[in-house]
Amino acid sequence: MDKDWSNYCTMSIVHFMAYPSAMSGTGLIAESISKIAEDPFFGAIEITSIEDSEEREAVRNVIDASSIKVGFGSQPLVLRGGLNLNSLDEREREAAVEALKAHIDEAAELGAKRFAFLSGKDPGDSDRSAALEALIHSTKELCAYGMAKGMAITCETFDRLIDKKALIGPSELACEYAAAVRSEYPNFGLMYDLSHQPLLFEDSRKALRLLAPYLVHIHVGNCVLDQNTAGYGDSHPRFGWPGGCNGVDELAQFITGLFDSGYLGHQRDDQPWVAFEVKPQSEKESSAQIVAGSKRIWQEAWRRAMREQSTAFGAQV
Fold it and tell me: Residue 271 gets which letter from DSSP?
């Protein structure tokens, strides 16, 4: 039996993190997207908004020529624009929904089939229930809009206490939220990020098992919990960053958790996505180095995970 990772998942990368200049939506974005598209290691890429219509066309040409799958991440747009899908101010909530609908249009133009976002800020204990209802309402609107365009809609869970301080949030609440939306819209699911797991103070295996019914996307990366260490918070430093939370061992444990939860483990045509989300932390680190390093760490972590649970692996397949 071939235990190579390529039989069980499609590897993706968050382009606008690996090449952070693209996060602004301006510049020669197609050039760096081409570097990913030309690398057969990656079967998919995650991009964000591109302001210039000619650059969007150039990106679409790269995508079409390389046959790479595409996801659209609106997280930078939500954060930069202060969009709050769970706002208790109805005008603010509606404005956020309309802004993301416009970006769903852009995602479709670029050939994306997946659209990701994050919730607004957690309002605190007293208003959390009302905010959750507002978010469910907003998400159902986005799912209905996306369904008409063949777009899968995904909410990424973020930390509540350290950096983004988002409503969604801890895995228990994420499941409650996803169940409410999924009951009407099968094109909805959740994304879990290894980078956020330490910031949520969660155990990977427990969280992945809990989220399993709604889990449709995975990110892997690193974070820093020590306030006195460079890269503190949700800055997505490379694996093995000094003082960071995640390296080869943690990634190997996470891969094992992906098998235990059922996210991985079945050879199928519609392979689940696993994406690197890593970002250069200074001019001393190039995007190309960060991407290459992530590939090496992934391959070593995969080998360790396969060695450690070869019996379980064989039973699942």
Answer: P
Q: What is the pLDDT of residues 129-179, one digit of tens each?
A: 999 999 999 999 999 999 999 999 999 999 999 999 999 999 999 999 999
What residues contact residue 293 under an 8 Å CB cut-off, 6+ apart? 238, 239, 240
- Closest to 233 (Cα-Cα) out of 307, 166, 311: 166
Which 3 state secondary structure label does DSSP give 134? helix
CA nearest 235: which of 163, 158, 286?
A: 163
Side-chain-side CA neighbours of residue 50 (13 Å)? 27
Contacts of 243 (CB under 8 A, 6+ apart): 224, 226, 229, 230, 231
Say if CB 232 and CB 267 are below 8 A apart: no
Q: Which two tokens stand for residue 306?
A: 């396969």
In 140-183, DSSP assigns E strands to 152-156
Q: Which pLDDT belongs to residue 266?
A: 73
**At 3, is the pLDDT very low, low, confident or very high (cuts 50, 70, 90)?**
confident
164/62 Cα distance (integer angstroms): 33
Give me Rg for the CA atoms of the chain: 19
CATH superfamily assigned to domain 5-316: Divalent-metal-dependent TIM barrel enzymes (3.20.20.150)
Four-CA torsion 28, 34, 37, 40, nearest 10 degrees:
-140
Q: Annotate 19-34 with b (16+ C-beta within 10 A) or e (fewer).
A: beebbebeeebbebbb
DSSP designation for 163: S
How far apart CA 256 and CA 209 sit, in angstroms, is 11
The contacts found for 124-133 with CB under 8 angstroms, 24 or more apart, are 127/88, 128/167, 130/88, 131/86, 131/87, 131/88, 131/167, 132/86, 132/167, 132/173, 132/176, 132/177
Written as one letter, the residue type at 274 is V
Which residue, chain included where needed, has tokens 């059922």?
A: 262
**Domain spans of the chain, in order of start:** 5-316
Hey, what are 49's tokens? 């908004």
Q: Are 109 and 140 in contact (CB under 8 A)?
A: no
Nearest to 252 by CA among 191, 308, 311, 316: 308
